[in-house]
Amino acid sequence: MKYVPVLAKRTMFTYFIIMFLLYLFYTINFCVVDKQPTLKTILKSHISKYKSGAFRFASFLGFDVEDYKYTRLSRNAGPVRRLPDALIIGVKKCGTRALLEFLRLHPDVRAAVSEIHFFDKYYHKGFEWYRERMPLTLEGQITMEKTPSYWVTKSAPKRVYAMNPSVKLLAVVRDPVTRAISDYTQSASKRPSLAPFEQLALSNRSGCSAVDPTWAPVRLGVYARPLRRWLRRFRRDRLLLVNGERLVADPAAEMAKVQDFLGLKRVITEKHFYFNSAKGFPCLLKSESSSSPHCLGKTKGRNHPRIDPAALKRLREFYRPLNEIFYRLSGINFGWP
Ligand SMILES: Nc1ncnc2c1ncn2[C@@H]1O[C@H](COP(=O)(O)OS(=O)(=O)O)[C@@H](OP(=O)(O)O)[C@H]1O
């Protein structure tokens, strides 16, 4: 409406504002006189109805209202705490911390710093308790949390589903033999008197040593069982299985898959990583909190003890058929030896 003279535009807009104020006065009067208990609600709905009308009318007269609307919007949409949109549910010692730290580089991802353990330990505290532990996010940002024990918590799939049936799930998996050694190394670092790995992983039954499937570090590597449980609740396309070996060998490529899965723009690329030969792992050129190169802490990427090759062979034989079941169920051949 560029042909409406500026003066006429102003007058018409002023009339409109006066009429709007009269209407507002009438509404307040009506509510107060009739002692309506819903004064706030009525006002709110009327104001928002006429606010959008006012915007349309002002732009019809040629006023540029978009800037004003945007400023109002960004001022209104302050950061809030939300329940997670995506969860890293496991698997313990497969690279879950690395995945979360890498994801933190993305401007559209905000994640809880520590493991919350809501769906395994603190479910009785309720969703409000959980929400309060989440980081502040802006509209459009993804809220995330990682607790690897969710993977093996029997009640977790049902509970997560109750929170949000369309939540996105991520699970990092790696060769179960390396995973077991990593798990053992962590326990041994806390208890130096712990028996050797071979002794704990293999039990001597009727004179010959066999893998002890009940020992937690061995049991946790049987991935098919928990996967079946999660797939009973969630569609396969709701769960991304991140390749733990690829996350070390080619973090950028693995992170591209993760970003696609989460519906994020591919912001995290090879430019973010460098290989730290002293640590033997990829590190970040800058992290969310610092602009200098940064590796994961000392508890990630520990030196593993040397394991007797005969014990390794037994473990590989033990896992081979179980891995096949996992490959079939997941639809991915991870090619573990
Ligand atoms: N970039 C990078 N830096 C360091 N470590 C890395 C990295 N990527 C994957 N990993 C592997 O992550 C293993 C630890 O796994 P998690 O983070 O899932 O452990 S935990 O369950 O949270 O305790 C850890 O296991 P260990 O090598 O036994 O320490 C690593 O092998």
Structural notes for this entry:
The chain is of the alpha/beta class and 337 residues long. Helix content is 46%, strand content 13%. The strands form 4 sheets. The protein has a 5-stranded parallel sheet with strand order 3-5-2-6-9. α1 packs antiparallel against α2 and α10 runs parallel beside α13 (309-330). The chain starts with 5 loop residues before the first helix and ends in a 7-residue tail after the last helix.
Lay out the secondary structure.
Layout (H helix, E strand, L loop, with lengths): L5 H28 L5 H22 L5 H11 L3 E2 L4 E5 L5 H8 L5 E3 L15 H6 L3 E2 L4 E5 L9 H8 L4 E6 L2 H15 L6 H5 E4 L2 E4 L4 H4 L4 H10 L5 E5 H6 L1 H11 L11 E4 L4 E4 L24 H22 L7
Parallel strand pairs: 2-5, 2-6, 3-5, 6-9
Antiparallel strand pairs: 1-4, 7-8, 10-11
Helix pairs in contact: 1-2, 6-10, 10-13
The protein binds 3'-phosphate-adenosine-5'-phosphate sulfate.
3'-phosphate-adenosine-5'-phosphate sulfate binds next to helix 4, helix 7, helix 11 and strand 11.
GO molecular function: [heparan sulfate]-glucosamine 3-sulfotransferase activity
Protein name: Sulfotransferase domain-containing protein
Organism: Bombyx mori (Silk moth)
